[in-house]
Automatic annotation (TrEMBL):
One GO biological process term: Mo-molybdopterin cofactor biosynthetic process
A molecular function (GO) term: molybdopterin molybdotransferase activity
Entry-linked PROSITE patterns: MOCF_BIOSYNTHESIS_2 (PS01079)
Family: Belongs to the MoeA family.
UniProt-recorded name of the protein: Molybdopterin molybdenumtransferase
Keywords: Magnesium, Metal-binding, Molybdenum, Molybdenum cofactor biosynthesis, Transferase
Pathway(s): Cofactor biosynthesis; molybdopterin biosynthesis
Organism name: Colwellia psychrerythraea
Entry GO terms, CC: cytosol
Needed cofactors: Mg(2+)
Superkingdom of the organism of origin: Bacteria
Length: 410
């Protein structure tokens, strides 16, 4: 029986992640933003409600407000006024009287219940109630959504659409948030050309920086794109120095595997304290991580699937910590595998899977097919990673496996 130790020299995935997280620190600088501009930012303050929401008891229906006691003696009440949303009833009502009321309008102090207009007959000022009512019918109570003083959002919460709505409903116009991180992207390789350029023999199109820039934009960071840097010591050094001066984090792809990593590795050895790790994960074994003079450095493998998976599973988690955001929550399910999966013990696999419901109504997962680390199209059809632990060998159809659903970044 093999385990991770059968792959000597490889760093277990969990250890790599933990090691990386202990080395990155959250930023401290905050800014104030109008709530309409604050979507996707991370809150730098707790938000307690300055008021009750709703602020007063109000009607959930268009109809008539009354005191339940009045209905006990007589089913017909006299209409003496009205309460509209934004224009509450100003007078007082007595026993035997009722008030016309609209949805959202304040319940007059003299009333406690509402009947909808469909359930009464109106004869001039005489309103006859056709059904038995109970105390508080169709009344939305003050504070039933949020109580005054209640903590509504916590520091570290990333603001989504509904949060902006909640802030508005509390009357909060501005919030303190952490500033955006600045992230520099560098693609290395003499063979790389940008889409739109002509390919010479031996060239390929550069795709990593495009994938990473989109994923980073979903993280709400400012991307500084350094484009493609040729495999040349001085060019790489100049790019890394400039990136480090401008950014909180520098992310490069390519040139970190042993053998072809010469320039990147020599440059990084000169500029900072970078660990060149071999992580027991597939795809994505080579990975560099450490600190430059001012920034944190992530060196992703060049192979597009490896770059994407290591960015998603490792760098994104660290960047989230740097943003002060609550840790990413990823959804895992244990589901049945519908066909055999190839796997050798020694590395943790992130196979690309398709999770679906079979004819029997069960969740089942299958592989997207060829899993080579250069096959970016293996991710196009996928909607999850099949996460297979390091010691796991081949998986047989019908066995249960752990899947991680694709999140908002993929
Ligand atoms: P490297 O780690 O530089 O040896 O690159 C490994 C493989 O990934 C090679 O086949 C490269 O051509 C390819 N590669 C490196 N960088 C990129 C990139 N930015 N976009 C697409 N493919 C890349
Ligand atoms: Mg290269």
């Amino acid at each position: 029986m093999s385990d991770c130790c059968s792959a000597p020299g490889l760093l277990p995935f969990e250890q790599a992640l933990a090691n990386m997280l202990t080395q990155v620190s959250p930023i401290t600088e905050t800014i104030s933003l109008a709530i309409g501009d604050a979507q996707h930012y991370v809150l730098a303050q707790d938000i307690a409600s300055p008021l009750n929401v709703p602020p007063h008891d109000n009607s959930a229906m268009d109809g008539y407000a009354f005191a339940l006691d009045s209905l006990m003696s007589d089913k017909t009440l006299t209409l003496v006024g009205r309460s509209m949303a934004g224009a509450p009833f100003q007078g007082v009502c007595q026993a035997g009287e009722c008030i016309r009321i609209m949805t959202g309008a304040k319940i007059p102090d003299c009333c406690d219940s509402v009947e909808m207009q469909e359930n009464v007959t109106a004869n001039d000022e005489q309103i006859t109630f056709l059904q038995e009512k109970s105390f508080g019918s169709h009344v939305r109570n003050a504070g039933e959504d949020i109580n005054i003083g209640q903590q509504v959002l916590q520091s570290g919460h990333r603001l989504a659409a509904v949060d902006i709505g909640v802030l508005a409903s509390l009357g909060v116009a501005e919030v303190k948030v952490y500033r955006k991180l600045k992230v520099a992207l560098i693609a290395t390789g003499d063979e790389l050309k940008s889409p739109g350029q002509a390919l010479r023999v031996g060239d390929i199109y550069e795709s990593n920086s495009f994938v990473l820039a989109v994923m980073l934009s979903k993280l709400n960071v400012d991307v500084i794109d350094f484009g493609i840097i040729e495999d040349d010591f001085e060019a790489i050094k100049a790019a890394f120095i400039s990136a480090d001066e401008q950014a909180d984090a520098v992310i490069s792809s390519g040139g970190v595997s042993v053998g072809d990593a010469d320039y990147t590795k020599t440059v990084l050895d000169e500029l900072g304290e970078i660990g060149f790790w071999k992580i027991a994960m597939k795809p994505g074994k080579p990975f560099a991580f450490g600190k430059l003079a001012n920034s944190v450095f992530f060196g992703l493998p060049g192979n597009p699937v490896s770059a994407l998976v290591t960015f998603h599973q490792l760098a994104l988690v660290a960047l989230t910590k740097m943003q002060n955001a609550q840790p990413l929550k990823r959804t895992h399910l244990i589901v049945k595998c519908s066909a055999d999966l190839r796997k050798s013990p020694g590395r943790m696999d992130f196979q690309r899977g398709i999770l679906a419901v079979n004819e029997a109504g069960e969740n089942v997962v299958s592989s997207t097919g060829a899993q080579g680390s250069g096959i970016l199209s293996s991710l196009v059809k996928a909607n999850c990673f099949i996460v297979l632990p390091s010691e796991q060998g081949r998986v047989k159809a019908g066995e249960m496996v752990n899947v991680q659903l694709f999140d908002q970044f993929l």
